[in-house]
Amino acid sequence: MGAYILSQYFINIYDTVKTMLSGMSLTMKHMRKKKELVATMQYPNEKWPIPERNIGFDNSEYNVIRSRLHVDIDDCIGCLQCEKACPVDCIKIDTLKPSKGSDFDCGKTSNDSPKKMLVPRFTIDMSECMYCNLCVYPCPEECIYMVGGPNEPKHDIDYEFSKYSKHDLIFEFSNVSETQIIEAGGQDYLAEKKAVSDKVKNGEKLMGGDVSAADSSSESPVVGKRSKGIDKAFVLFKGVSDGKMKAVARKAIAYGRRNLEDPATIISAIKNQLNDISADMESALNQFSSFDYGDSVKGGSSSDSSQNVSVSTELFNIKEINIVEDKLLRANLKKIYMNGKKNKLNSNIVVDEMLVLLKGKGIDDSTIIDHLNSLKINEVSSASTGASSSAEVEASTELFEIKEINVIEDKLLRANLKKVYMSGKKNKSNSDIVVEEMLTLLKDKGVDDLNILNHLKSLKLNKPKVSDSNQVSVVNNAKENKLFDMKLLNDIADKVARGTAKKVYIANKKSNKSSKEVIDKIKKAISTAGLMNEDIENLLGELE
Ligand code: SF4
Ligand code: SF4
User: Fold this and answer.
1) What is the pLDDT of residue 350?
2) Is the distance from the beta carbon of residue 124 to the nearest atom of ligand 1 less than 6 Å?
3) Which ligand 2 atom is at minimum distance from the Cα of 83?
4) How far lies 50's CA from each of 54, 58, 156, in Å?
5) What's the rounded Cα separation, in Å, for the pair 231 and 240?
6) What 3-state DSSP class applies to 144?
7) Residue 111 CA, ligand 1 centroid: distance in Å
8) Quick one: which of 74, 161, 213, 417 is 20 to 30 A from 252 by CA?
9) Among residues 177, 281, 277, 202, which one has the least CA distance to residue 236?
10) What's the whole-model pTM score?
11) Whole-angstrom Cα distance, residue 282 to residue 33?
12) CB burial readout 256-281, b (16+ within 10 A) else e
């Protein structure tokens, strides 16, 4: 028995050493012939080679795989078409137009199109991209595309682009240097960018960060951009037991505040979406109606808002202008926007300037006007515009059109008044201030022509203008004779009658005829053509 135990002891030692050596020899073999024997590919350092053919598609159709987006940034003209087309907003583009004074040349694309902008930021977040390809089609320079396939000559197929961190999937294509931005006069852009990166560094955008404190202490406000942390008002809805109701409220608040809506509008939007409102929800909404965010724009009681507006530099997002379909008008509005942004003007002032431009151009599209009004910080609706308070009138920068001065016949006096006008315009003075200055000038020069004085007074913001017929008639005969806008004839439904009316209008416009004379002629022409009906008669009657 003792001999058996002893032999077993040595057999175990032998087995241990034997298995250990055989295991180690296999390990050593793998170490020596690593490439031949390791079955697992050392991903991501090693990747399978890209199959050359026969993967189910022809090489020319490789693009159907939607491998990866690439931008030939040297060809990008910064038109933002791709950004607008992206349904998930994963393309972010910043453009910078060289300032007027600078002779910076942005160059040309490979299609010889002149580039008018610098593109200091062009990022695509591939972790969000859903490979729909929609951004590719609108590009006028064909410089954004999925790699491979038909674009194989432009860029190699790249079917795999894994990264260690999600953030690395945000690809930056811009190659514009800071020096170029400065040369193009983009110091403000750099300052803005720095302010944003400082905010991020300080964690002010993180959940729980004190956004309001950060906003008030920030020396260079990030114009047009808003903090994206959790909305402070969400806390009011914590006690709402119905999760669905809570979600609707949160969504409506986030959306409403992004669009600068006031609490009342947001609350009515929430109520519209909910059939039954529970008691806890009702009380949360009541609290929200007077919730103070502590900033100048979001929420807060309406009584505070007017005070805050005067100091706010908050400017709406330029994308809001994209609803204007007319390209030229859109460009003009964007010019005003950029100018406002540069001068750190707030939404109200910029919108007012835009409205003046629209008025100057005779555009009375209520959709555009209402939309612009809705961008104002204190949500001035089109209905309430007419009833604006005297304080608002005082703060307005609305200035009458320079053409109004043309009714003054004395050339020298006209020139002097125009000088005053231009100086007022430069200083963003409103009609009241400019008119007062003009009246002072007239007094100094001893001009007491009642017609001129009354006309100038009628241009003041708080004085009735064209609508006050008595006053206008005293002011100036020329003004009384002013012909109505041809666009008003667009209300004539019948095409042929409308055409006839416009023909008569154009034929008589140059001969300085009054509205009444022209309307008489239009009536005659339409009647002769046998097209007169009650609607047209009423319309022309109104114009008369
Ligand atoms: S492929 Fe689609 S989701 Fe991706 S960037 Fe283009 S438009 Fe956006
Ligand atoms: S559509 Fe083309 S040219 Fe326009 S911004 Fe996008 S990539 Fe650039």
Assistant:
1) 83
2) yes
3) 6
4) 11, 14, 10
5) 16
6) strand
7) 24
8) 213
9) 281
10) 0.37
11) 73
12) bbeebbbbebbbebbbeebeebeebb
Pocket of ligand 2 (CB under 6 A): 71, 76-82, 93, 138-141, 143-144
Would you tell me which CATH number, out of the four given (3.20.20.70, 3.30.70.3270, 3.10.180.10, 1.10.3720.10), belongs to the domain 63-183? 3.30.70.3270
- For ligand 1, whether the C-beta of 459 sits within 6 Å is no
Mutate to test the pocket of ligand 2, among 70, 81, 90 (most ligand atoms within 8 A of CB): 81
The residue to which tokens 């002013």 are assigned: 482
Residue 246 CA to residue 123 CA, distance in Å, equals: 34
CA neighbours closer than 13 Å in the CB half-sphere of residue 332: 15
pLDDT at residue 381, as a whole number: 39
Rounded to 5 degrees, what are φ and ψ at 129?
Answer: -60, 135
pLDDT tens-digit map of 273-321: 887 788 888 888 888 887 777 654 333 333 333 333 334 567 888 878 8
pLDDT recorded at residue 311: 41
144 lines ligand 1 (CB under 6 A): no
Using a 6 Å cutoff on CB, does residue 206 contact ligand 1?
no
Report the alpha-carbon angle 65-69-73, nearest 5. 150
**What residue has token string 């599209």?**
365
Pair of tokens at residue 188? 């403000």
Q: Hey, what amino acid is at 448?
A: D
- Evaluated on CA atoms 99, 104, 109, 112, the torsion sign reads positive
Q: Whose CA is nearest to atom 2 of ligand 1?
A: 132
Rank 19-33, 139-153, 426-440 by mean pLDDT and report only the highest. 19-33
Domains of the chain by residue range: 2-37, 63-183, 225-301, 318-382, 403-481, 486-543
Helix (H) or strand (E) holding 145: strand 144-146
Q: Which listed ligand is nearest to 119 at the C-alpha?
A: 2
| pLDDT tens figures, 457-486 | 888 775 443 334 444 333 344 444 567 777
Going from the Cα of 226 to the center of ligand 1, the distance in angstroms, rounded, reads 24
Q: How much distance in Å is there from the Cα of 151 to the middle of ligand 1?
A: 17
The single residue listed with the structure tokens 């012909």 is 483
